[in-house]
Design goal:
alpha/beta, 2,3-Dihydroxybiphenyl 1,2-Dioxygenase, domain 1, 2 domains, four-stranded mixed β-sheet, 22% helix
């Protein structure tokens, strides 16, 4: 396990800035629309179902996820995935129900009995829904 940063380094800025999260997929248009609903983001432009790449952004355009058409299908567990926390005004149970209603599926990657849920988007890309909100994490760390 790596060395923990000293408390005075926690506020230091990263030397790199994340530009985009790129997601390989079979249908960029459909998957981008799905994730836009999940994240409550917008399509970055007016794409069509024929586009090989489609981007979504939050209202402030501070981030971007780009969905890229690839010929091969997903066959194995992701080597990188996103962990989400419920926002402070909601909870894990509410968000789990919302994600499942939107079409996420439960996935068993060998996690056992844990406090988080492993889910997959419509193309099988895994992501996790954690238990605690940002406020709960901050209170525990205070």
């Amino acid at each position: 396990m790596g060395e923990q940063p000293s408390p005075d380094r926690k506020a230091a800025a990263m030397s790199l800035v994340i530009s985009q999260l790129a997601v390989d997929c079979a249908d960029p248009y459909a998957l981008a629309q799905w994730w836009a609903r999940v994240l409550e983001w917008d399509l970055a432009y007016d794409p069509t179902s024929e586009d090989d790449e489609v981007s979504i952004v939050p209202a402030d355009r501070s981030d971007e996820w780009i969905f890229l058409k690839v010929p091969e299908v997903k066959t194995l567990k992701n080597r990188l995935h996103v962990d989400f926390r419920p926002a402070n005004d909601t909870d894990q149970d509410t968000e789990l129900a919302r994600l499942l209603d939107l079409g996420a599926t439960r996935v068993d990657v060998g996690q056992g009995d844990v406090a988080w849920h492993v889910l997959a988007d419509p193309e099988g890309n895994e992501f996790c829904l954690l238990k605690r909100t940002p406020a709960q994490v901050a209170a525990d760390e205070a």
